[in-house]
Amino acid sequence: MRIKPKTKPKTKFIVVTGGVISGLGKGIFTASLGRLLQAKKLNVIPIKIDPYINVDAGTMNPIEHGEVFVLDDGSEVDMDLGNYERFMNVMLTGRSNITTGKIYRHVIEKERNGDYLGKTVQLIPHITNELKRWFMDVAEKSKADIELIEVGGTVGDIENLIFLEALRQLSMEADVVFIHCTLIPMLKVVGEQKTKPTQQSVQKLREIGIQPDFVFLRCQMPIQKKIMEKISLFTGVREENIIRGEDLDDIYRLPLYLESQKVHRKIMDIFGIKDISTNGLDDWKRMTDSYKNARKTVTVAMTGKYTALHDSYVSIEQSLRHAASMLGCKVNLKWVETTEIETGKRTAKSALKGVDGVIVPGGFGSRGTEGKIACIKYAREHGIPFLGLCYGFQLASIEFARNVCGLRKASSTEIDSNTPHPVIDLLPDQKHVYKKGGTMRLGGQDVIIRKGTRAEKLYSSTHARERFRHRYEFNPAYIKRLEEKGMVFSGHDESGNIMQILELPDHRFFMASQFHPEFTSSMMKPNPLFSGFLNACIGS
Ligand code: GLN
Known about the structure:
Elements: E1 12-18, H1 26-39, E2 44-50, H2 62-65, E3 69-70, E4 76-77, H3 80-88, E5 97-99, H4 100-113, H5 123-142, E6 146-151, H6 161-173, E7 176-183, E8 186-187, E9 192-193, H7 196-208, E10 214-219, H8 225-235, E11 242-246, H9 254-260, H10 263-271, H11 282-292, E12 296-304, H12 314-327, E13 329-337, H13 338-342, H14 348-351, E14 357-360, H15 369-381, E15 386-389, H16 391-403, E16 410-412, E17 421-426, E18 441-449, H17 454-459, E19 463-470, E20 472-474, H18 479-484, E21 488-492, E22 499-503, E23 510-513, H19 528-538
Parallel strand pairs: 1-6, 1-7, 2-5, 2-6, 7-10, 10-11, 12-13, 12-14, 14-15, 15-23, 16-17
Antiparallel strand pairs: 3-4, 8-9, 17-20, 18-19, 18-21, 21-22, 22-23
Helix pairs in contact: 1-3, 1-9, 5-6, 11-12, 12-19, 15-16
């Protein structure tokens, strides 16, 4: 049974698939293409498909899978959605991230409800129909001109077959353009660019019934003309539809690079959309140029235990980058493994030598926390700009309680369940939560900012909307003790009970937030906490 809309939907679909290997930057390509189409005054909505059985990314280890991104509606999603929001300045919902788990759960719930009574529920048509319905529904609700669908994984994987089948069917019912991202490896010894992996990957796609309209070729070096000709011949993709994707020194230049290849024009021609000539990427170019031409470089220490994999902190890196573009400086990140400080292998002083600022990001569990606390102490005592994010906020309160308020054994009950001074404790409504998936305090919340504070100055407002992902909070019983010694809780929730920003007014820059400002920063709108922090680092 096919879903037969009376007329083709108004929304056009662009499907981005990947071949050869993972980690080709398909997400950045999709986000950049979205940004470029937006610059042509098109309304674009992205969807990421993740072919894993987890219902969402919330229960996945960032070391294995990269950062868990949080949307305003509280969805814990793949980090590619962070790229979409950062590039496109859109606010997405959980509907923009489909996983195998999510779609199967949906169909199984319908089956249990008796919606398919009497029928055998099968991959085709039940899962495929549900997927198509999902794509159409997102298109309709967002009234998008273009829906950009990125398929996770690599063509040839068993996991994404059903999604590709649904997309193949979609192309019979709507206008769909397929773009396949692949790799052109270069053999150093012979200096030759190889086309075979691309040929075979496109063949795999054709076996499924999908002929790509474009290929996006990732390569370390400029792609030779003869390589483009050969790929065109073997893949059936017109030569002018082969998009170059050589390594760029700055990912934010990709929308400009795609524009220079007129990718938008070629896609819009296929869809029959008129090109309104606009200078939509002018501001974007200014921001990337400002970064490129920056003379000053600041060194920021990033402390953590996932330092082995920088993808765990991608949003923080990008938020610093946004602020740096605005302020016209470059950022050099120095990764500090706090377990080494904790075990006495090195001191905070030596780890932080020469840095202009310190960030303590979010995290879970106790490993490495003493090392982080030592770094916070060092930054506080030596006037080094400090920014704490979520766990960083909690650890900054613990450090202050211990070393300034004299509560030597202060801790978080997450670290020490028997601490005599639980400065950080479980949120009251978390006390009876046992299931792990999607049960933290998640998503966008209003932050009430206290007048006359640094936070008010940075936000230029007494109100902000920020995103959260935590189970623990600052214990309100200790507010007075810490404030008496000079700590200011400059942001809280609407009830006034949950502390959300802290600052030390006498310090050059010492601020922390219970929320994650890295989830609301975008290229065209850097988050004020990051710009304030970096500005202080520049003055170092
Ligand atoms: N582990 C802390 C909590 O659950 C902080 C979480 C985080 O940094 N995202 O509250």
